[in-house]
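One chain is below:
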Amino acid sequence: MLISISEASKRWGVARTTIYRNIKNGKLSQTSGKVDHAEMVRCFGEPSLEKKQSSLQDTVLQKQADTLQQRVEELERSVAAALQEKALLLQEKEWLRTQVDKAQETIKLLEYRGHQAPTNEKPKKGLFGRLIGAVLDE
């Protein structure tokens, strides 16, 4: 049964370069880019189940790592968005605080004007107004 060199590399847990080196040295024969399973067994022994299991475990672990990496990136984007929203809310809070301060100042001014008793007295005249008034006998 012919198998590809990369598949043989995975099954026996040897590097592809090692397989190519054995082909070059004449220890293995190659047929249209593939090697015979029987020759791989003769050269490297039976493929171990541990290698298959570790390869499967590596695949599962890699998938889990990829999933976790995607989740981390997603959470980082969420945190960045939350920080931007927080900054906007703080700006809005400061603006509202200044508006409240202005409104309180306005209320104080209105209350102060309301406490002043209206006077029926005539406004005081200046020097020129008093001289004219004295001349006209007002």
Remarks:
- The radius of gyration is 46 Å.
